[in-house]
Amino acid sequence: MFAIIKTGGKQYKVATNDVIMVEKLAGSAGDLIEFKDVLMMGQGNSIKVGAPLVADATVCGTVLDQIRDDKVIIFKKKRRHNYRRKNGHRQYLTVVRITDILSGGAAHKAKASPEKVEEKTKAPEKKVGTTKKAEAPKAAPIKKAESVKKTDTSAKGEKPAAEKKAAPTAKKTTKS
Asked: How far apart are CA 12 and CA 130, in angstroms?
């Protein structure tokens, strides 16, 4: 059995256990998705064509992953006008495995994983009377290395005493 569905402005021909990549849909890995926009269904020689949609037909699938497509480079140029623009784009995609193709309002057979069902039905628990948050152990403060004391001579415009050179003294010799 196959069906042609419409999602994200595109049409896909799908069969049971097909893996397709469609434009981003809400949901995380393991979630169930139903496609209500079924344009055509077929099995063997019998074909149902919708006008525009097939009545009471749904295609059910499971989200496998949320990914991004390869980068597409957009480059615009107008010659002799020094106009060049380079841009890139990566489309968000959802990878979906088709589990069932249903017609006539039949119920979906596949079950969600038990963890997902519990998360959806279980109300969040609130703790009463606990206002103090658990504190993480504090790390020892980092000690800064002691700085070497330097005399500030830049303000005076003089060189430090160690750098000054003493003028050589000439010795006078007397002959008698």
From this structure: 53
DSSP assignment of 86-126 equals EEEE--EEEEEEEEEEE-TTPPP-----HHHHHHHHSPPP-
pTM, 2 dp = 0.56
The Cα 24–Cα 95 span in angstroms is: 9
Residue carrying structure tokens 């169930």: 32
Please list the ranges in the chain whose pLDDT falls under 70.
105-176
Question: CA 34, CA 12: separation in Å to the nearest integer?
Answer: 14
> Exposure string (b/e) for 81-101, b if CB count within 10 Å is 16 or more?
eeeeeeeeeeeebbbbbbbbb
Helix, coil or strand: residue 161? helix
**Whole-angstrom distance, CA of residue 61 vs CA of residue 35:** 8
99: left (phi over 0), alpha (psi -120 to 50) or beta: alpha
Which one-letter DSSP state was computed for residue 163? G
